């Protein structure tokens, strides 16, 4: 029974690992996430039985959260404090962008307003699906929309940046750059405790935000226990890639094709608007345009921060923008939806 239960996961892991090596060989951006994501998604939609346990996804999130926090040195924290007003502006933009694209999705797909609103909100799939369910949205449509959005953002932005040779233009150096195995064990223990604490508090993305908070607190205090070995970061990307890819089901392409095409169209519109906003933000703030694009793109924390890390583009700035946006969205999405409903009822 144990073998039967783990067979779909082991197969997903094998497909992801081989595809990551292949993508590394052909020199794609983010090979350890993009390869597993697309290979497992294709296999899953082709009818192959694949699975990624929640604990595996959480292990991947832990590795990414811990690695990102190492960039928040005291000097970087001071820089980020000077950008706090722009981060708030980016959050407000994301909320407006999600609402506008939700309206657009309703118009072009015919899906109900509630489902469209939560489907295009720029947040995590599970959080938006849960929030949508509370307000009567079609959960399967909301989840499908976010899966497609993340896949498109991960596919388009890193490849565009690689094609334009945009790399190493806004480099930040982590506080800990050498692996010390005693310090690494302490870092692992502390960050796992942080993840469990955030999960107990029912925080979204607890296994990203918990380790991230702990490593930020340590690094900002100039306590550099250890760097994370590169193989740990690769494994984290592999786990996140297969967790995203296995969300796609054999029915994904066969159910509501008009809706999926509409989501793809709205995602492209959102990415174009976000890029235009990013150039404006870069002009007034002094943030590098490539960093601003990653910071304001409609992707997730892990995916966009990993892209920034891989391409050496303002890792702490991108992370700060996305973490603040996620927190604001989770807190405000319910009240925003109720406000939208009241405005709709008032104006017929």
Uncertain runs are: none
Structural class determined from secondary elements: mainly alpha
**Coarse morphology:** globular
Spell out the helices and strands N to C: HHHHHHHHHHHHHHH
Helix content: over 70%
**What is the distance, rounded to the nearest whole angstrom, between the alpha carbons of the first and last residues?**
57 Å
Mean pLDDT: 87
Question: What is the β-strand count?
Answer: 0
Radius of gyration: 20 Å
Number of helices: 15
* Percent of residues in β-strands: under 5%
Biggest beta sheet summary? none
Short description:
This protein is mainly α and 348 residues long. It has 15 helices and no strands. The model has no long low-confidence stretch (mean pLDDT 87).
Q: Top keywords for this entry?
A:
348 residues, 15 helices, 76% helix, mainly alpha
How do the strands and helices of this protein lay out in sequence?
Blueprint: H1 2-25, H2 31-45, H3 54-69, H4 74-82, H5 84-109, H6 113-120, H7 125-134, H8 139-163, H9 181-200, H10 206-220, H11 230-245, H12 257-285, H13 289-296, H14 301-311, H15 315-346
Helix pairs in contact: 1-2, 1-11, 2-11, 3-10, 3-11, 3-14, 5-6, 5-12, 5-15, 6-7, 6-8, 7-8, 8-12, 8-14, 9-10, 12-13, 13-15, 14-15
Structure characterization notes:
The protein is mostly helical. The chain has 15 helices and no strands. The longest helix has 32 residues, at 315-346. The relative contact order is 0.18.
């Amino acid at each position: 029974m144990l073998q039967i239960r783990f067979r779909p996961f082991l197969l997903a892991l094998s497909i992801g690992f081989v595809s990551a090596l292949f993508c590394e060989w052909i020199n794609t951006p983010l090979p350890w996430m993009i390869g597993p994501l697309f290979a497992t998604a294709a296999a899953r939609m082709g009818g192959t039985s694949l699975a990624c346990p929640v604990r595996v996804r959480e292990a991947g999130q832990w590795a990414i959260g811990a690695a990102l926090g190492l960039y928040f040195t005291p000097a970087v924290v001071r820089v980020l404090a000077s950008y706090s007003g722009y981060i708030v502006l980016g959050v407000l933009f994301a909320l407006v962008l999600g609402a506008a694209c939700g309206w657009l999705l309703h118009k072009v797909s015919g899906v109900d307003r509630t489902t469209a609103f939560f489907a295009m909100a720029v947040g995590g799939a599970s959080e938006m699906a849960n929030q949508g369910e509370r307000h009567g949205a079609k959960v399967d449509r909301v989840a499908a929309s976010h899966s497609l959005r993340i896949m498109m953002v991960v596919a388009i932005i890193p490849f565009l940046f690689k094609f334009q040779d945009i790399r190493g233009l806004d480099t930040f150096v982590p506080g800990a750059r050498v692996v010390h195995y005693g310090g690494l064990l302490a870092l692992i223990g502390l960050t796992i405790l942080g993840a469990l604490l955030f999960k107990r508090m029912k925080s979204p993305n607890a296994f990203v935000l918990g380790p991230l908070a702990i490593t930020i607190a340590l690094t900002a205090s100039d306590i550099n226990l250890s760097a994370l070995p590169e193989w740990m970061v690769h494994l984290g990307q592999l786990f996140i890639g297969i967790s995203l890819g296995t969300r796609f089901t054999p029915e994904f392409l066969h159910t509501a094709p008009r809706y999926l095409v509409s989501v793809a169209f709205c995602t492209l519109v959102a990415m174009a608007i976000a890029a235009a906003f990013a150039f404006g933000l870069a002009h007034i703030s002094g943030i590098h345009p490539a960093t601003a694009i990653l910071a304001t793109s409609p992707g997730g924390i892990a995916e966009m921060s990993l892209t920034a890390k891989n391409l050496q583009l303002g890792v702490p700035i991108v992370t700060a923008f996305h973490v603040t946006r996620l927190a604001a969205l989770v807190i405000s999405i319910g009240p925003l939806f109720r406000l939208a409903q009241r405005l709709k009822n008032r104006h017929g």
